[in-house]
Amino acid sequence: QVHLVESGGGLVEPGDSLSLSCTASGLTHGTYAMGWFRQAPGKEREFVASISWSGGTKHYADSLKERFYISRESADDTVYLQMNNLKSDDTAVYYCACPDKSPYWSGVFSYTTASAYDYWGQGTQVTVSS
């Protein structure tokens, strides 16, 4: 059974930085990609960033690319999200996700679409407030 566990959330002030991590377990052959999404109160879940197994392909939400940085350790299926200069609008539950596809899968993967991901973590709360 596949499990994704996020960590690193918390309460920070505007302008602060925060780093999230997520480790996937139970994957037989690793995963083709890993991604971060977030959901603020009263809003739909939105794409934040994603990264391929090798780390060579990264995608970011346009509004976040200047402040957020995604990286991963493929050896242990861990993905990180470095968030800088946080704003109150970044307050949300952050979810990590991965597809049920091995790193060797060949096809067109929709990195920014939530429905392309099969496994999800429980989420970690990030609150940005003074």
What does this structure look like?
The chain has 130 residues and is mostly beta strands. The protein is built from no helices and 11 strands. Helices cover 0% and strands 45% of the residues. The strands form 2 sheets. Strands 2, 4, 5, 6, 9, 10 and 11 form a 7-stranded mixed sheet that branches. A 4-stranded antiparallel sheet has the order 1-3-8-7, with no helix packed on it. The radius of gyration is 14 Å and the shape is globular.
Low-pLDDT ranges: none
Cα(first) to Cα(last) distance is 40 Å
Order of helices and strands: EEEEEEEEEEE
- Structural category is mainly beta
How many β-strand stretches?
Answer: 11
Report mean pLDDT, rounded to a whole number: 94
Q: Which geometry do the CA atoms define? A: globular
- Please report which band the strand proportion falls in: under 5%, 5-15%, 15-25%, 25-35%, 35-45% or over 45%: over 45%
What value does the Rg take, in angstroms?
Answer: 14 Å
Helical residues, percent: under 10%
- Helix tally equals 0
* Main pleated sheet: 7 strands, mixed
Q: Secondary-structure blueprint of this entry?
A:
Layout: E1 3-7, E2 10-12, E3 18-25, E4 33-39, E5 46-52, E6 58-60, E7 68-73, E8 78-83, E9 92-98, E10 119-120, E11 124-128
Parallel strand pairs: 2-11
Antiparallel strand pairs: 1-3, 3-8, 4-5, 4-9, 5-6, 7-8, 9-10, 9-11
